[in-house]
Design brief:
Blueprint lengths: L3 H17 L4 H16 L9 H4 L7 H13 L3 H8 L3 H5 L8 H10 L5 H9 L10 H18 L3 E2 H16 L4 E5 H4 L4 E2 L2 E7 L11 E3 L8 E6 L2 E11 L3 H9 L2 H4 L9 H7 L7 H9 L13 H8 L13 E5 L10 H10 L4 E7 L11 H18 L6 E9 L10 H4 L4 E5 L8 H13 L5 E2 L17 H11 L2 E5 L12 H6 L4 E4 L11 H10 L13 H15 L3
Helix pairs in contact: 1-2, 1-5, 1-7, 8-9, 20-21
The structure holds zinc ion (2 copies).
The site of one zinc ion has 5 residues, from loops.
Length: 570
C-alpha cells in the first residue's frame, strides 16, 4: 500500500513537471494545492474512496480520480508521460539546492543542459554565472551542491536502509538456512554506504541465483558476493559462510576494521582473538570480549577504539534505551505545521505509556510553518491547562508548554521576554539564513545559548542527511557554552537529521552537558523516530542519567523549576 508520503511526492513531482513542460497554469496550481493539502491529511490516504477524497480541502473530482488511479495502479499515467519526455539528468537537477523549476527550465530548454556532469563542467568554467538571473552566487551554490550530491551517491539514510535490508533478508532466507545483518546496518549507522549480510550454508555452497540480485563479478569471489539489488544503487555484500562459522563471521563483518585492530594487554588484536574462538556458539560475542579482557561491547559502538575506553568507565545497563524514556519533547501540532491536534498528540503519547509530552510548535517568525503569533500562544496555553486536567483523570499525565523558537539572524529568540517567560521550556533552533560561515554560525548559536530562556538547543547543525550539509560551527566552543549555561543539546531523532551528530556525544558528556532525544514529531507516528535517536545515542555512549527525557515528569518539572530559579527568570 502506498504511504501518504509517496502519494504526496507523486502529486508534487507531477506539478513540477507540468511547470517544467510549460503546461496550463490552472492545472499546475491544482496539483500544487492538492499536494499541500494531502500532506496535511492526518489519516491514511490509501484507504480512502472517491467520496472521502473529495471531502479533503483542495481535492476536486479530477484530483480524486487521479489519486484513486495512483492507489489502484501505483502509477499515474499523466506523470509517466511527463517523465518519458524529461531527460534523466534534468530530473536529477531537482535535487540541487537552490534550483527551482524556473531555473531548471532555462538550463534545459534555453541552454540544452541534460546531465549533471555537463552542468558541473559549465559551473567550473564560469558559464552558468553569466546566464541572466543566475550570477556568481547561484553558480557557486550549484557547484557545491553537485559535489555534495556526488559524494552521497549510492548511500541510504538509516530508515530507508533498514527497510531495504529487511526485504533482502527475506529473499535470502529462501536460499540459505540462516541469514543475518552485519556491517553498518547492525552498527545502526545514520548513513549506510553498503548493506552487508551473512548467509550460511550447511555442507556445500549452493549456487546462488535470484532475479532481484545483480552481481558484479569483477569484485566478487566465491564466498563473497558483491553487487546490487533491484533498482537500488547502494552496494550489497553477501558473505557466504559455513554454519559452523556463522557467529564468528557475523562478529567480524559487523565491527568496523578499526575496532578489530584494538590490542589488549597481551598485545593481541580483537580480530586475532575472535578468529581463534569457536565459530558458532550462541554467546560467541560475549566470549570474545571476555577473552580480550573487557566487558561486552554492544554492536552499535563497534566503530573505533573509543568503545574500549567507554566500557572501562560505564556499564552497558546504564546506556539509554527506549524503555527508559519517560517523556517526549519537541513536538508539533496543528497549531503550527503538525498533522494532528494537540489533544490527539497528547492522548497518543499517553497511550504509549509516556508520562509527559513537551509541545514545541514553531514561533511567530516561522511564517512558512504557520508559526504561533502571541495570541495563539495564549490560546494554546489555555488549551494545555484544560487538557492537563482532562488527561489526568485516570492516571497522571502532563503536557509541558514549550515552543520551538527560531534563532533569529542576530541570535536572539523570537518573542519578547514576558512571552518567553510563559513557557515551561524552550527549544531554540535555526531555520533560516542557513548559509553562514563557521564564525557567524558559532556567534549566532552562542547568543541563543546564553539567552536565559533557552532550555534546549534544537538540531544544532541544521543538516539533512544526504541532502543538506548543515552550516559549519565550532563544536567544542558551542558545547562548552551549553555547559556554562546549563543548556541541553537535542539529538534530533528524525532519520533525516540525527543531529547532534553522535560523534560529539562523548565530548558533551565529558563537559557534563545533558542530551535530549527528541522526535520533532509532526504527526503521532513521528514519535517512533525516537528509535533512530536511541540507536545513535547508544553509539555515542549516552547514559540514562544524562538524558533529559529519561527524567520522570516530576523530575523534569523540578529540573525546569530549579533552572529558572538559578537564572532568575521564574
Ligand atoms: Zn526545527
Ligand atoms: Zn521542530
Amino acid at each position: 500500500m502506498l504511504s501518504n508520503e509517496e502519494i504526496v511526492e507523486t502529486i508534487e513531482l507531477t506539478s513540477k513537471l507540468l511547470e517544467l513542460h510549460g503546461e496550463d497554469e490552472v492545472r499546475i496550481k491544482t496539483y500544487n494545492n492538492a499536494a499541500y493539502n494531502l500532506d496535511k491529511f492526518p489519516g491514511n490516504l490509501a484507504s480512502l474512496d472517491f467520496g472521502q477524497l473529495v471531502q479533503i480541502q483542495g481535492i476536486g473530482k479530477m484530483m480524486a480520480g487521479k489519486i484513486i488511479e495512483l492507489i489502484n495502479t501505483n502509477k499515474l499515467k499523466e506523470l509517466e508521460e511527463l517523465l518519458a519526455m524529461t531527460p534523466k539528468g534534468v530530473l536529477d537537477m531537482f535535487r540541487i539546492k537552490g534550483l527551482g523549476v524556473k531555473k531548471i527550465k532555462i538550463l534545459w530548454k534555453d541552454f540544452d543542459y541534460t546531465s549533471l556532469e555537463d552542468l558541473q563542467m559549465a559551473c567550473k568554467n564560469g558559464i552558468i554565472a553569466k546566464i541572466k538571473g543566475f550570477g556568481e552566487k547561484t553558480q557557486a551554490g550549484i557547484l557545491e551542491s553537485l559535489i555534495f550530491l556526488k559524494a552521497q551517491q549510492g548511500k541510504l539514510r538509516m530508515d530507508k536502509a533498514l527497510v531495504l535490508a529487511d526485504k533482502i533478508i527475506e529473499r535470502l532466507k529462501k536460499h540459505f538456512i540462516k541469514v543475518a545483518h552485519a556491517g553498518q546496518i547492525r552498527r545502526q549507522s545514520e548513513v549506510v554506504e553498503c548493506l552487508t549480510f551473512i548467509a550460511a550454508f550447511q555442507e556445500e555452497l549452493p549456487t546462488f541465483s535470484d532475479s532481484g540480485f545483480i552481481q558484479d563479478k569483477t569484485i566478487s569471489s566465491p564466498f563473497n558476493w558483491r553487487g546490487k539489488f533491484a533498482e537500488f544503487s547502494i552496494p550489497i555484500e553477501i558473505k557466504f559462510v559455513s554454519l559452523d562459522d556463522f557467529s564468528k563471521k557475523q562478529f567480524i563483518y559487523t565491527a568496523h576494521p578499526d575496532h578489530l585492530k584494538q590490542r589488549n594487554s597481551d598485545n593481541k588484536t580483537l580480530y586475532t582473538i575472535a578468529h581463534g574462538c569457536n565459530g558458532n556458539e550462541p554467546d560467541f560475542e560475549e566470549k570474545v570480549y571476555a577473552k580480550f579482557g573487557v566487558p561486552f561491547i554492544i554492536p552499535e559502538m563497534r566503530e573505533n577504539n573509543n568503545a574500549f575506553e567507554w566500557i572501562t568507565k560505564n556499564k552497558n545497563e546504564d546506556l539509554i534505551n527506549w524503555n527508559s524514556l519517560k517523556g517526549i519533547l519537541h513536538n508539533h501540532s496543528t497549531y503550527s505545521d503538525g498533522k494532528h491536534s494537540l489533544e490527539e498528540m497528547a492522548s497518543y503519547c499517553k497511550s504509549l505509556g509516556f508520562e509527559y509530552l513537551g509541545i514545541a510548535d514553531h514561533s511567530q517568525t516561522a511564517s512558512y510553518a504557520n508559526g504561533l503569533l502571541i495570541t495563539k500562544v495564549q490560546q494554546q496555553h489555555q488549551e494545555i491547562e484544560q487538557l492537563n486536567k482532562k488527561l489526568s483523570i485516570d492516571k497522571p499525565f502532563r503536557i509541558f508548554k514549550g515552543i520551538e523558537s527560531d534563532i533569529l539572524g542576530d541570535g536572539s529568540l523570537d518573542y519578547p521576554d514576558e512571552i518567553l517567560a510563559s513557557f515551561d521550556f524552550i527549544v531554540a533552533s535555526i531555520h533560516s539564513n542557513l548559509s553562514m560561515n563557521s564564525t557567524k554560525a558559532t556567534e549566532r548559536l552562542i547568543k541563543a545559548i546564553e539567552n536565559p530562556y533557552t532550555t534546549i538547543l534544537g538540531h544544532p547543525s541544521g543538516r539533512l542527511l544526504l541532502s543538506r550539509q548543515g552550516y559549519p560551527f565550532d563544536y567544542p566552543t558551542v558545547i562548552d557554552c551549553c555547559a556554562e549555561n546549563q543548556v541541553v543539546i537535542e539529538i534530533n531523532a528524525s532519520p533525516y537529521r540525527l543531529d547532534l551528530d553522535w560523534r560529539w556525544i562523548e565530548y558533551a558528556l565529558e563537559k557534563n552537558v545533558m542530551l535530549s532525544i527528541n522526535p520533532d514529531a509532526h504527526e503521532m507516528q513521528g514519535y517512533f523516530d525516537m528509535h533512530f535517536g536511541v540507536a545513535v545515542a547508544r553509539k555515542g555512549g549516552l547514559v540514562k542519567k544524562m538524558t533529559l527525557n529519561a527524567y520522570s515528569a516530576s523530575e523534569f518539572e523540578l529540573y525546569l523549576q530549579e533552572r529558572k530559579q538559578k537564572k532568575g527568570i521564574n
